[in-house]
Amino acid sequence: NLRCFSPGNPKRCISWKDIEKGGLPLETDVVINLSGKSIGQPGFWVKSLKKTIYDSRIDTTKKLATAIERSESPPKVFISASAVGAYSLDPDKVYTEADVPVESGKETFFTDLCRDWEASSTLPEGCPTRVVNPRFGVVLAHDTDPLKLLLKLAITGSSVVGSGKQPFPWIHMKDAVQAVHTCIEDESVQGPVNLVAPQIVDNKQFTHALANACLAGVQKVNLPEFLVRLMYGTERADCILLDSPKVAPQKLLDLGFQFQYEDVDSAMRDIVEAECKEGGVLNMYMRKKKG
């Protein structure tokens, strides 16, 4: 289901069938599309799973684009998500929005997915709705399944993935939310926008920041590459977990966007603190470490 936010009925939900039959609700100002099946669950990218991942993004985006096109009063802006997976895995290049995302011959399932995901949000010429495609890095937030797994690994000393040298494009959830708000409010923003923090780190640096925030000390044991491939399959492991592009938030920087969490150390301290407030194993671990 889709959630409609309005002063009169903030909890109103509508279905995809409602959108297909009746179009967008009247006086819709902004459409934000973040739909898509998670790519983070363990398992191989078999044909059926890849189709689900693909369709859950492209089909839903096309439905919203069609609804916007047919609307008698189109929204001012269509925020339709994408990801930094749009870029090639070139270790010598830092990608900005001005770069061609992927060179011919270097395509992967993930780059193709992001390309089609963004293309499906395209509106016909003459439609007044502005389209923005936030290319999200890893969004760091507490109380999420991926972070809970990373925290468990961190406090057991085994969370560096593979060599640890692969880039880790990231952004704190609070900055991601504020960046999307900027994309909505600033009418000059359109097209792809890299939603990543300005600090470029690798997996080892991220892992150490997480471990330090948990008072867990130096991470001495790496998660072997063969085990990552066994858990996630070679295709997904090699283009997401064991390698990633280096990405800079150039458009946001040019706009003068102020990141609340520019460095990964401050981001992880905030997230671990928030996670501890929820209680549970991490809170007990931290209390024991602090004596």
Report what the structure shows:
- This protein is of the alpha/beta class.
- It has helices at 16-22, 47-70, 109-119, 145-156, 173-185, 203-213, 225-232, 234-241, 250-254, 264-277, 280-290, and strands at 2-3, 13-14, 30-33, 77-80, 82-83, 94-95, 130-136, 138-140, 160-161, 170-172, 191-195, 222-223, 246-247.
- The strands form 5 sheets. Strands 3, 4, 5, 7 and 11 form a 5-stranded parallel beta sheet that branches.
- Helix 2 links the parallel strand 3 (30-33) and strand 4.
- Helix 6 packs across helix 10 (264-277), helix 7 (225-232) packs across helix 8 (234-241) and helix 10 crosses helix 11 (280-290).
- It is globular.
- The mean pLDDT is 88.
Strand content: 5-15%
Spatial extent as radius of gyration: 20 Å
Q: Cα distance, first to last residue?
A: 47 Å
Oligomeric category: single chain
Envelope shape: globular
Number of helices: 11
pLDDT < 50 stretches: none
Estimate percent helicity: 40-55%
Order of helices and strands, N to C?
Answer: EEHEHEEEHEEHEEHEHEHHEHHH
Structural class: alpha/beta
Give a concise summary:
This protein is α/β, with parallel strands linked by helices.
What are the key terms here?
5-stranded parallel beta sheet; 11 helices; single chain; 14% strand; alpha/beta; 291 residues
SSE diagram, text form:
Blueprint: E1 2-3, E2 13-14, H1 16-22, E3 30-33, H2 47-70, E4 77-80, E5 82-83, E6 94-95, H3 109-119, E7 130-136, E8 138-140, H4 145-156, E9 160-161, E10 170-172, H5 173-185, E11 191-195, H6 203-213, E12 222-223, H7 225-232, H8 234-241, E13 246-247, H9 250-254, H10 264-277, H11 280-290
Parallel strand pairs: 3-4, 4-7, 5-7, 6-13, 7-11, 8-10, 9-12
Antiparallel strand pairs: 1-2
Helix pairs in contact: 2-3, 6-10, 7-8, 10-11
